[in-house]
Each structure stands twice: as C-alpha cells, then as structure tokens.
Amino acid sequence: MLVDLRTCIGCHACSVACKAEFDVPLSVFRDTVKYAEEGVYPAVTRHFLPVLCNHCEDAPCLSACPTGAIGRLPGGEVVIHDGDCNVNRFCQAACPYGAIYIDPYAKVAQKCTFCDHRTAEGRQPACVEACPTRCRIFGDLDDPASEIAAKVKANTTTVWKPEAGTRPRVLYIDPRGGLRLIADGGVQGAASHELAGDHRTSDGEYLPSAIPRSTP
Amino acid sequence: MNPPLPEPPWGVTIAVYLVLTGAASGVALCLPFAIPDDPGQRTAIELRAARLSLALFAATFAILLADLGRPMRFWMMAGAYNAASPMSAGVRLLVVEAFVTAVFWWLLRRRAGAIEGGDLTLAPGATTGLFAVLPRLLWVLGALLALYPAWLLSRVWMAPLSKGFTSYAAFMGSALSLGVAMLATRWPARRGRLAWIASAGSVLVISHAVALGLRGELRAALILAVCGALPWLARLRPGATLAVSLVSGVVVRAFLFLGSMT
User: Fold this and answer.
1) Which chain B residues have any C-beta within 8 angstroms of a chain A C-beta?
2) Could you give phi then psi for residue B112, rounded to 5 degrees?
3) Poorest-confidence range of A3-12, A201-210, B123-132?
4) Which of A88, A124, B122, B186 has its CA 20 to 30 A from that of B90?
5) Do B1 and A89 touch (CB under 8 A)?
6) Which chain A residues are Cβ-neighbours of B13 within 8 angstroms?
7) Confidence (pTM)
8) How far is CA A98 from its chain centroid?
C-alpha cells in the first residue's frame, strides 16, 4: 500500500470504514490517523498521518508467535488466524508499530488484514475505497503496469520507523517529514493518555455512549 | 502532541514469571556447588532440592496459566512450534526441565528408600546411568532457562533495558543470585561457597550495568549496579546471603523487564 501524505486531510473516513468493516471495538484500531503538530505560531504545521499494520517483510509478530497463529498469505499480507491465537501477547510486544490489539469480546489478537476478504474478490480494501482524496493506493508493487508501481517510481517514498528494520510494505510519500514526529507512537494509543471520563466500567465493559479520546 | 506508545501488553504477572523461572534455573545451576562432600548426605540434599524445584515449576506454570486465562491456551503453545520464537523455545525448555526434574525426584525417592533400608550402593545399570546424566542435563537446561528471557526481551519494544549481549549476563547473574537465595538457608555449611557464586552473579549483573552506562542510560545502570552488587556485599556477612541475594535477584529481573529508561 502507498499512502500519499500530501493529500491526506485527516478526515478519518479510512478509520471509520475499517471500524465498520470489521466491527472493531472502541479504544482499539486496525487503522487510524495520527495528528502531529510542528513549529511555533505563526509557522505551524499539522500533519495527518494514516497508520496501520505495515505487513512487514521481516514481520516481528510473525517470528514471535509461538502458536503459529500469524501467517503470511500468498499476496504478502500478514494475518492472524483467530483459532490458533492463545492470547500470549508476544506479537503485541514485538510489533514496533503497536498495530495489534486484543479484541475484548473475541479474546484474540487482531490487526489489519489489508482486507484480504475484499481483495480476494478483486475489490479494494475498505480504507482505500473510503478515502475521498485517494491518498491511499493498494496494489501489486511487482506489477510495473500497476498504479502503485508507477506512483512509487515517480516519487520518493519512505516507511514508518525504518530503524526497526522490518521492511514495511506500507510506503509513504512524506516530503514534509511528518512520520519522524510519530517515531515513538503506535497504531494503538495508550489508555493512560485518555482524558477524564473513562468509557469502561470497573469490569472492563464498554459503555454504550463511550467516545474514545486517546487518539483523534 | 506525539501520540504515546501503546500500553505494554505484559505486566507484573510476567515479571513474577521471570523471577520464578530465574529461581528454578538458579537452583539447578547452584546445586552442584552446594552438595556436601559426605556421600551419605548427597541424596537427601538432592531430594530436597528437587522438591524445591518442582514447587517453583508448579508456581511458574500456575502464573503462566493465570496469565493466559485458560489451560487450553498453554497446550496450544506447547503443541505448536515456531523455531524463530523465543517464547516457543522457552515453553519447551520449561516443560522439559520440569519433566526431567520430576523424573530425577522420583529416582531420588527410590534411592532414598533404598538407603533407609540399608542399601548404600547402587546396582549398576540404567538407573546408575540416569543418576550420572540427569544432574548434568538439569544443569544445562537450567543455564538455557536462565538465559532465555534475554532472548525473549530482546524482541520486544517494552523492555529497553534488556537489549544488548550483556543482558544475557545480567539474566544469568540474577538467576545465580536467586539460586543462592533458594539454597543458602537449607545448607548453611555451604554458605561460604554459595556466597562466592552470588559474587560471580554480581559481576555478571554489573557488566550489563556498565554496558548500559556506556550507552548513556546512567540512571538505569546505577540501579542495576547497586542491586547487582548486593550479593557481593553480603559475602562479607554470610548470614545475610539469603535475604540479600533474594532481593537482588528479584529486583534485577523485575527491573530488566519493567524498568524504563524514560
């Protein structure tokens, strides 16, 4: 996947589409948009940074999983097979992108799948389809005739946290260097970062009217 | 406005697990140095050590099961194998070490019974061979079990103090401290020798503290150095070896896991 940060407007259509596609619970994310501000008034910039699982070629989660629940599909997507997950959370601890969460209802680790159920039918991932500015392009980088290959060839691309050495397959066009501002961040936010008004009961159940505020 | 890291997926339960595995591996590592010269006492002491190890393994499995939530989840981990996963290797080490300890305990019980009946010599054969092999096997497995948390934590972002080759030394050193603490009360006659082992553990922990300090994480290095040096200081008063080694081993292992440089 290629994300062109020049055209992202931070509307969260991708986040909402992903939530709807997979019924992702409150407070956790498969796909979201981080905001990062830079500079001092009046020279201030706000970056919109869509983040998701990077489906790394050297995926730390894949080599960490002791039960073999995490595998790679023929197209390169790294996916979690729910039935084999024993919730040891090593994948979460190993992923430098914080892309994996434990579903509080299903009690298994989950993350972005690049919508493999949709792409298998020739459709686009939900986030790509929902993006109003077409800042996300999904396709086969090895196919020189594909739109993504052409755009990658025509632009300088980078990845999130290159120092992690995971060879991510989510590429970014980031001429303003926004990704370095979230070098310490993850797809999931820390619950302790949330504002007053916890949206869970003491039993850990989510309140119906809850609105997570940890991430925009 | 940088978004913060997600909350660490592992917490105190896993810290306790690491301390318990350190204690179990420490017993296996330190036992050969605690056995008295008198062959008559050897079986009794090995039997007590095997019982202690089994109790530690039982507690370790209980903590693991409590963390995973259901026993079936543990068997999912034991039934599959991923050669690249430190957790997969660690679970196997734990199961094999516990099993070998149980076999050794059973053999020792039989032997103790025979000694009580007046038979002070072992008949040649397979059992004699097992008595020669099993303690060595337990020592090797104990060493691997002492080191494996360093491999495990080198793969996670939430334990920055466990990075680098010297973290293996720190985990080995803390296992030795815990082993000394487990054995020192039961065999006071060997306290002097055990205290020297605790001192060796101190050197290993301090080597990691020095490595961290050289990289700039001075506060963490100081805490580790002070805690790691406690068993060496206790060597001056052997009576304090138990408490001080226990505190040192627990603090070092927990700090390597839970401590943060930020």
Assistant:
1) 1-10, 67-69, 72-74, 76-77, 80-82, 84-88, 91, 152, 155-158
2) -60, -40
3) A201-210
4) B186
5) no
6) none
7) 0.86
8) 9
Q: Between chains, do B77 and A66 touch, taking CB under 8 Å as contact?
A: yes
Picking from A30, A89, A180 by the largest number of B CB atoms within 10 A of its own CB, the best residue to mutate is: A89
Count how many domains chain B has.
1
Record the tokens describing residue B149, joined without a space. 């948390």
What's the gap in Å between the CA of B174 and the closest CA on chain A?
23
For B10, counting Cβ atoms within 10 Å of its Cβ (0-12 exposed, 13-18 middle, 19+ buried), the class is buried
Instruction: Give the ipTM of the model, two decimals please.
Output: 0.86
Ramachandran assignment for A112, one of left (phi > 0), alpha (psi -120 to 50 degrees), beta (any other) = beta
pLDDT in tens, chain B (262 residues): 344 566 788 889 999 999 999 999 999 999 988 887 776 678 888 888 999 999 999 999 999 999 999 888 998 888 888 889 999 999 999 999 999 999 999 998 888 888 777 766 665 566 778 888 999 999 999 999 999 999 999 999 888 888 889 999 999 999 999 998 888 766 666 777 788 888 899 999 999 999 988 887 888 888 888 888 888 877 666 667 777 888 888 889 998 888 865 4
**Is residue B61 one of the residues assigned to a domain?**
yes
Of the partner residues B6, B69, B88, the one whose CB lies closest to the CB of residue A87: B69
In a domain? residue B144: yes
Give the domain CATH number at B35: 1.20.1630.10
Compute CA distances A100 → A85, A170, A207, B90, B111, whole Å. Answer: 12, 16, 22, 22, 52
A and B: number of Cβ contacts within 8 A:
102
What is the rounded (10 degree) CA torsion for B234, B235, B241, B246? Answer: 60
- Residue A126's Cβ-count burial label (10 Å; 0-12, 13-18, 19+) is buried
Closest Cα of chain B to A94: distance in Å?
Answer: 4
Domain assignment present for B4: no
| Measured distance CA(B249)–CA(B135) in Å, rounded | 23
Reference A8, options A149, A114, A128; nearest CA is A128
Do the chains contact at A89 and B10, CB–CB below 8 Å? Answer: yes
Domain that holds residue B76: 12-259
Distance from CA of B128 to the nearest CA of A (A): 37
Of B1, B7, B87, the CB nearest to A64: B87
A→B contacts (Cβ < 8 Å), by residue, are 34-37, 60, 63-68, 84, 86-90, 92-96, 98, 102, 107, 181-182, 184-193, 215
- How do A109-110 and A70-72 pair as beta strands? unpaired
Q: Give a yes or no: residue B211 inside a domain.
A: yes
